[in-house]
Amino acid sequence: MKGSAWAARVFWLVCLCLCVHCKASDFEDSPVPLVPILMIRSSNNAFYDATQKGFLQSLKQQEQALNIRTKVTVISLAGSQDTDQKMLEQALKQHPQLIITLGTDATVETAAIHPDVPVLFTLVLNPVALGVVKSLDAPGTNFSGTTLLVSPGKQLEALLQVDPSVSRVGVLYTQGDSVSQAFLGAAQSDAQRLHITLVTVAVKNGDPSDAALQSLDGKVDALWTIADPASSGPQALQATLNYAHTHNLPVLGLSSATVHAGALVALSPDLEDEGALTGELAGYLLSGSQKIEQMRVRGPRKALLCINLDVARALKIKIPNDVLHLADEVIDSER
Description:
Low-confidence stretches: 6-29
Structural class: alpha/beta
Shape: globular
């Protein structure tokens, strides 16, 4: 009996080893699929780094659950239409299964070559005005993604939180710019709800902002820099901050960088989280759980409040402590 029992144990041990061996062989014969992804940046500017980082980290976290490996090729536009078009056409020859675009230029240039794979954009203001989607809720194309802009109402509310006395806000924008016009159209209704009068001034493309700013003399008690070259381009922003300093006006900035430069407050999206959210949308597409033409465009899910307390003191604005406690960043040289 003992010999028979021992033989039986040996038999089952051999069978177990064979099963383990078969499973290992099966795994080797079925490698995890490699998914090529193309990321297109509007430029090599460091502005896009945080969003790229957030996307890559988010995508990496999903690989195991999706049972895939991804290879992300990153290219940056050079700013020359001919050069960029050739670069994009060459990149598409690598047959990416998904394209990620960072910024307006990258999104528009990609749309111009009509790729036949899903495209997720991020760091754009108004994809409907750009013509890449039919609507935010139902894109109806092979483009979807995330928008950059915190709603105008929330931005104006942030300004009122730090300075409730504001009632007239001046805004410069580029004449004929459809994206800015759509944004300001939405801002008008929000401003009315908040009992704010928006004083908008159109600036011809390429013209300096100084004359437009002078036209606001005595008509506004705050300025607002929006995502428009006439408002937040390097020279325009500096002109606005200089004008505001001379006339003792608070500035609602576009980002924390503008607050560091001298604006009073800004409510802006978390750029790294923009990338993380785009990575999650990529996961839905790669898993097959959603189709690009039905994937609604998402707005920022996390906004950062930045306040310059030094500017507030210079303007003799007393910001409530509870508002300061809500801020993600407070610039205060006296700390």
